[in-house]
């Protein structure tokens, strides 16, 4: 036991000696005892840290406040005038067509499900309201939402399909602002901007 103790204390002494030796060989570092560090500095560091965490949390929430409607985005047909796939005549396309194969459809923004239904044109559809905007997701094979439901961005509201007036499976998205059709690409641009801004800000922290 004595041998062991002396070995331990010997090691400690050696370690201390080495440390002092190194310091002597180089420069003398003035260090403060932790208790001597100004407590207001510690407080402000903790505050900075919690503010930073809070900011990161907000950035994450902002990033999650938008979602593309499908996990893979490939535009089949844009909004605007085009040759109608059925009649071949120039006709206004009131939405955006995305390539899809039995894919989950995500709400692009938080909002309320104001209508679900099925008709000959849109097939099975879900309409969400986001303030003055409404967004409809059409030609679904399955509806996974109910009227009055509150959804978050990224919530699954349906499965893509080929119901209604459709020449092949795709997701048709229409967007209205105060009742007038607008290009859904505007929402895509918004999603892109929000996510890019959040990533850029996060990478600077
Ligand atoms: Zn379409």
Can you give keywords for this protein?
single chain, 205 residues, alpha+beta, Glucose Permease (Domain IIA), 10-stranded antiparallel beta sheet, two-stranded antiparallel sheet, 3 helices, disordered N terminus, binds zinc ion
The quaternary structure here is: single chain
Output the radius of gyration: 30 Å
Into which percent range does the helicity of residues fall? 25-40%
- Please tell me what the overall shape is: elongated
Average per-residue pLDDT, rounded, comes to 85
Q: Give the structural class.
A: alpha+beta
- The DSSP helix count reads 3
What small-molecule ligands were found?
zinc ion
CATH class of the domain at 75-189: Mainly Beta
Strand-residue proportion:
25-35%
CATH superfamily of the domain at 75-189: Glucose Permease (Domain IIA)
Q: Give the termini distance in whole angstroms.
A: 54 Å
For the biggest sheet, the summary is: 10 strands, antiparallel
Q: Tell me the total number of β-strands.
A: 12
Low-pLDDT runs of 5+ residues are: 1-23
CATH topology annotation of the domain at 75-189: Glucose Permease (Domain IIA)
* CATH-level-2 architecture of the domain at 75-189: Distorted Sandwich
Task: Name the helix and strand elements from N-terminus to C-terminus, one letter apiece.
Answer: HHEEEEEEEEEEEEH
């Amino acid at each position: 036991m004595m041998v062991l103790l002396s070995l331990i204390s010997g090691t400690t002494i050696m370690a201390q000696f080495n440390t002092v030796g190194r310091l002597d060989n180089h420069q003398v570092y003035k260090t403060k005892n932790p208790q001597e560090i100004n407590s207001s500095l510690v407080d402000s560091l903790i505050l900075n840290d919690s503010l930073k965490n809070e900011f990161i949390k907000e950035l994450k929430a902002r990033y999650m406040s938008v979602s593309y409607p499908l996990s893979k985005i490939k535009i089949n047909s844009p909004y605007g005038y085009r040759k109608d796939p059925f009649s071949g005549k120039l006709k206004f396309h009131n939405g955006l067509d995305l390539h899809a194969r039995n894919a989950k459809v995500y709400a692009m923004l938080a909002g309320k499900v104001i209508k679900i239904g099925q008709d000959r044109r849109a097939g099975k559809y879900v309409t969400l309201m986001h303030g003055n905007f409404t967004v409809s997701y059409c030609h679904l094979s399955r509806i996974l939402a109910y009227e009055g439901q509150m959804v978050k961005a990224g919530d699954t509201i349906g499965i893509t399909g080929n119901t209604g007036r459709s020449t092949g499976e795709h997701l048709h998205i229409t967007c209205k602002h105060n009742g007038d059709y607008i290009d859904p690409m505007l929402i895509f641009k918004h999603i892109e901007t929000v996510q890019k801004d959040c990533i850029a800000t996060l990478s600077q922290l």
